[in-house]
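Section 3.1: Structural characterization of target chains.
Under the original work plan, the team committed to producing a structural model for every single-chain target entering the pipeline before any wet-lab resources were allocated. The record below documents one such target. The sequence was received from the expression subgroup and is listed exactly as submitted; it comprises 348 residues.
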Amino acid sequence: MAGPSYRERVDAALRGGFPEGALDVASDAFHASLGDLRMVWGDVVEHLAAQPAEVRVRLVAALPGRVVQAPAGPGLGHGLLHLCVALSEGLPVDILADERRAAVASVGEHWVLQNHTYLHLVRAEVAAGRNLPPATVATVRRTAQLVGDRAWRGLAGSLRGPALNVGELWADTALAETAALGEGWPALLAHAVTLNAGEPGARWEKVGRTLLDALGVRAARTRILSWLALAGRPRTRPLAEPADGTGAAVNERLDPVNVNAARGLICLLSFTEADEDSAHTLVRLVGVGLRTVPRHGPRSPKLAHAAVIALARQDDPASREELRRLATWVSHRTTRRVIDAAMAQGRT
C-alpha cells in the first residue's frame, strides 16, 4: 500500500503547527525530482505557495537557515530560493535577497538554462526593480532563441539590457566604444540588431544609411570593420561546459544574438565604399561562420551567408575576386548555393 503523498505529508506538518516539517517534505520532493519543477517538486512548491498568508509568513521565516545549510551552488539551495519567491508572493518581505542576487548572477555562467527555477529567480529580481547582470541577460536571451520555450522567450522580451550580449570580444569592444562615443553610435548598433532577414528591406536600408550619414560614412565604416575584425576570437567570459560532457563545446560557438547584430553591421558595411580591407574582412567572416564546432557543426552559416551577400552587394573588383576564390574552397552546401546564386546574378 502506497504511503501518503508529498502533499499529504505537507498538510500533516502544517496541521501540526510544524512549518519546519513542511520544509523537510519540500526538500525530500526536490531531491526525488532532481529539482525538476515538472515533477513532484513543482507540485509541492505550488501547494505551499497556495497556503494562507499567515502560514506562508512562518514558512518564509524558516527558510534562511535551510538555505545556509544547503550546499553552495546549483541544487537544493537554489531550489529553496525559488520556493521563497513563490511563498513571498503578495507578502511585504524581500527575504534572502542577497542570496537570490548571487543565484541570478550565476545564470550568466551558462550558455543556456532550461531549468525554470532560474526563470522564476530572474523574474523576481526584475519585479524587485533591480538591474540584472549583463551576463545574465545574455544567457536569458540565448535560452530564448535556442531552447524554444515560450516562458523564456517572454522573459527575454521583457528585459532591458545592452544591445549586444557580453562575453565576446567584438561585442564587448563595440559596446564600450559606442557608450564612450555617444551621440548616434549606440543607435547604429541598436539598428544593426534589428535586421531579421538575410537582406535588408527598403525601410531598414533607409534608416541605416541615414545613421551612417549622420556619423560620417568613412568613420562608421572604419569602426564597423574594427569590430568585425574581432569576431570569432576566444570568449572574454568563458562559460561552463555542460556537466555531462554531451553538449557542444559552448565556448567555441558564436552567440546567436551577436550573430544577428553582426549580420546587421555587415549589411551596413555594404552600404559604404568597398575596398580590399572590407573584402578581406568579409571573407574572414565566411571562415569564422563555417568553422566546425565539435558536436555542433558549423558555428554560424547565417554569418557566412551575410558576408557572401555583402561581397556581392559591394560589386567592386576586390569583392568579385574574393567571391570567385570562395567558390573554389567553400564546401558547405547552403553557403555554396548562396555564392553560386550571387555569381549567377551577374554581380561578380
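The first helix runs from residue 6 to 15.
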